[in-house]
Specification:
Blueprint: H1 2-15, H2 17-50, E1 52-58, E2 69-75, E3 81-92, H3 105-108, E4 124-126, E5 135-140, E6 154-165
Antiparallel strand pairs: 1-2, 2-5, 3-4, 3-6
Helix pairs in contact: 1-2
Amino acid sequence: MIWAVTIVIIVLLFIYPKQTGLLLFILLVGIGIVALIDYLVSYQKEKEQKLVSVAVSYDPSSCSKDSPLSFKIKNDSKKIVNKVSWNIIVTAKGSSSNIVDYESFPSYQGEYSIRPHSESSTPYSTHKILIPGELFSVCYKAPLIREKLPSQNIIWKVINKFSEFQ
């Protein structure tokens, strides 16, 4: 199909060179404007996503032994947040290998989801509405990890955070 459009444009360029050239120029400028607007909207959305932060810590003293992961969610954007979803990775100090047993989520973490999880999924979420500047804390169960390590040698990190705005 693109070849047919190309042939028509070439024929029109030979028959009506000035008009076709002007039409192509206007078309290219229009496409450029649409691309610029799309880029600016995407950039603004990405910037707003970065203004909502989620921090994780292993804290059975302020949470419970059943749900020892403490998540602190902060909305530094100018919009109201309806939902925040995220995942975590766990590494041993001095290592970059993720040791979360994601296959344990469906049975062990059944209340989050019945579908299988991976490093790219977002099994943790909160529907707490966060106004601009609000800080919210919540505790969740910790996933099973593939290695037995003392808690002081484990590093918890939030990944794949996604916020839904009003």
